[in-house]
Amino acid sequence: MSLGTLTEHADELFVAKYVNSSAHFAPDLPTLESSLRSFSRMDEAREALAALGGRASCLIQGYTAPQNVEALRRRLSEAGVARADVVAVDLLDLPRIYDRLGVGIPDVDFLQGDACDLSALIADAVFDIVIQDFTLNCLPPVLAPKLSREAQRVLKADGFAMVSFTDATGLRERPVLPATNALLRHGVEWTSTLTGLMDAAESGSHFDELSAGLMGATLAAGARGELIFVTPPSGRFEFFAPADSTFEMLRHAGFHCVAFDRSIGIDPAGLQCARYRCLLRPI
Ligand SMILES: C[S@@+](CC[C@H](N)C(=O)[O-])C[C@H]1O[C@@H](n2cnc3c(N)ncnc32)[C@H](O)[C@@H]1O
Cα-flanking dihedrals φ and ψ of residue 17, to 5°? Predict the structure, then answer.
């Protein structure tokens, strides 16, 4: 199989895990809907939603599950926000993938692109709410400050962000390979912006070799104890940083954490995860 076809297949498989009519549906994955339930138990988040008035503009940086916008509109409507304009940015061509998976296109303005830099499309201070729902776990940690600074840039001064992420707890018990050595064994030089085995592979057969050696492995990269899980069967990387360093990164990006919820879950690969849902205000 060509690398392009492999990547397309991996992207489709990744989204299929969030589609309940798919054979690959993984009901235990955290979605925006589950995060909104956590936020609705937080006094500060309920107050922030109630203060919005009847209308809100929202940006979702990294979208995935087709039902997310419906869940968001429902939650906003419960909080008295009858009208919500929602923009969703994702690197993936989600409408095309939904179409291939037989899913209707959600009622949201999709932008395909890099949510770390929306300066060509979105002015400063235009959104009441910015949402990152586990996007930090899909993004190389070296890019996390950029994503968060961009969230801060497009938020109104009295807006707020709802940022959810999983920390590295579950992976600490597992054998860990240094990313540099693990990849060099397969002829690949490690770079901190790789997002999966597809990025590292030079051909379909090289991808098969990388998969045989590294699928399901835990890799260590970065100075702050960041860990990478090579997720089967796609070989996409999931990135986990210690929670303290994520909070520090968010502070440096210009956010103050007003409140957060921490809960323990098990992900589809059997990893125990500490999931954080954080309500942030721009400083
Ligand atoms: C873990 S998924 C989000 C799942 C989410 N919890 C849900 O309910 O659907 C993260 C999403 O962020 C997207 N993503 C990662 N890096 C991105 C970037 N730099 N810009 C835009 N989207 C990005 C991925 O393509 C993926 O669809």
Answer: -65, -20
